[in-house]
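Quick log. Single chain, no ligands specified.
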Amino acid sequence: MGAGRPIWLPAYDQAVSGNEQSSWRIVVISTILPVAEPLIAHLRELGHEPVAWLIARRKEGDERPLPPWGEITDSSAPAGVSLLFARDKDAVAPLLRGLAPDLVLCCGFAWKLPQEALDVPRLGAVNEHPALLPRHRGPIPLAWALREGDGQFGITWHRMDAELDTGAILAQTTVPIEDDWTTIEQMGPPLIQAAFDLLPQVFERLAAGDPGDPQSAEGISWAGYFEEDYATVDWTQPARKVHDQVRAWYLTIGSSEVPGPIAELDGERVKLLRTSLTDPGNGARAVECGEGNLWIIESEPAE
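-> predicted structure:
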């Protein structure tokens, strides 16, 4: 899913050589295989050396379901990189020191890394956050973009500091949200591509020693886990609001302690999984909302 070689990349190469480093040793930190795998491949396309993929070790007794791609193992990891399992956040710095990386790239990782770990790579540590920072800092920014009707997903590459999503910005862009996006298979590829398209700009700034742009003190919001106040479907709301509520809950990936979104249909409580603003056929049920109809593609009985 590489973005290809941008036409202005020769200028990027010159900036890198001025920093006495034409090929950087890069450690990728991520818990998401469909992100880490193409990112590692794309870094190679840009002429760099991904030396390791670091992930969080699954704790013994963790009863949460495995992600769709299953357990990460030597056979499922991308070839040509060391696979490192950190037992906790304090183990990250020693692991990184042994690799002597020029750069750490983080994309989809739940831990707030200590400053000791962030100080290891000589060019710093950079995170990709799927929001237009400082809006939607926190764990589920894509879900909050839908909840608040933003109409677009954001992408931000920023320098990492010891807090969550507060570091200086290196590059940003947006991806329009399509009405028929209801699965990560539809949303993921354009988001990944948009993030990859920004990497040459990010690397140019890093090579030049650019500290990045401090985040604004205005427009800060927190994308925390959903609670009861957003768990119930109100059919008097416009169909688009309900559709976005269903998609927002889908993007929480089971992270909230309460179930949602729960709707009442024919006197029964159901959990809505997928909906559509247009008739998809195949017997999808139409429900009249406060403004327009919504079609239920997939649902299950509420527990």
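The first strand starts at residue 25 and ends at 29.
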